[in-house]
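I'd like us to work through together how a protein chain folds, taking it slowly. To get us started, please write out a protein record for me. Label the sequence line and the structure token line clearly, so we can match residues to local backbone shapes. Once you have written the record down, we can walk along the chain together.
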Amino acid sequence: MGYLPQCTLSITVALGSIEGRYDLVLGETKSYAVWLPPQFNTLTEMSPGEGYLIRMTAAGTLTYPACVGGLGAEPAGAPGEGVLGHGRAGPRASPLSGGEPAGGLGGGPPEPLGG
């Protein structure tokens, strides 16, 4: 899915509205897995113009926080305000459904090696 905000946000801030409903995010060359220690995740920020695959573990609606300023800006306003399709300006939302992996990915964390 396309990243709609016009500022770079940390992955946890950008995906805050679906916290606990996804377990894996893939960028073009980087990834973020919730089950890995932070030092092993190479995807730490989401940036304008990029696309990401998000593997949902439960249905949810992604609502990006509003941005203030340019790149690296902190979000403004409360998540969930101004959802697209409701005739209001503000953060943008995309409905996401769980139960089926996005992009043909398998379910759950990978099995440990040698086990």
